Amino acid sequence: MRQNKVANYLLDTNVIILALRSAAYALNFLDRFNQTQEQAYISVVTRTEILAGMRPHEEQRTMALLESLTSMLVNEVIADKAGRLIYQYARQGVQLSFPDAQIAATALHYNLTLVTTNTKHFPMPQLALHSLQ
């Protein structure tokens, strides 16, 4: 019997921002997780970025969205991978931001597909990407 593989996703910070701004395509993407066995996760790095940019009147809605998603912790293995990614790409003339490297390393470590609107920020060929446009 052939089993369908269930996809699991790590949502980049920009996807959460778009959902909080009520962008239909981001909200539609998030709705799929209520209707399928697929799972959506965020990195604790995304939580930090979202809370750092949150306005006081957005707190209730922001926290409700963040709490509806499972946050993936950054451990030593992920931190090491992120550091190595920054080092590797810097040698190629590509500057990765600290948050993007942490998010990419989390997706790689947990074998998650990274959902983003900024695929150029994630040049790693071994990283499964889903472009949300």
Count of DSSP-assigned helices: 6
Q: Could you say which overall geometry the principal axes of the C-alpha atoms support?
A: globular
The level-1 CATH class: Alpha Beta
* Largest beta-sheet characterization: 5 strands, parallel
Give the class from helix and strand content and strand pairing: alpha/beta
Give the CA-CA distance, first to last residue: 35 Å
Q: Architecture, CATH level 2? A: 3-Layer(aba) Sandwich
CATH topology: Rossmann fold
Average residue pLDDT: 93
Topology as H/E string? EHHEHHEHHEE
Q: Identify low-pLDDT runs.
A: none
Cα gyration radius (Å)? 15 Å
The total beta strand count reads 5
Percent of residues in helical segments? 40-55%
Strand content: 5-15%
What kind of assembly state do the chains in view correspond to? single chain
What is the number of independent domains? 1
The CATH homologous superfamily is termed 5'-nuclease
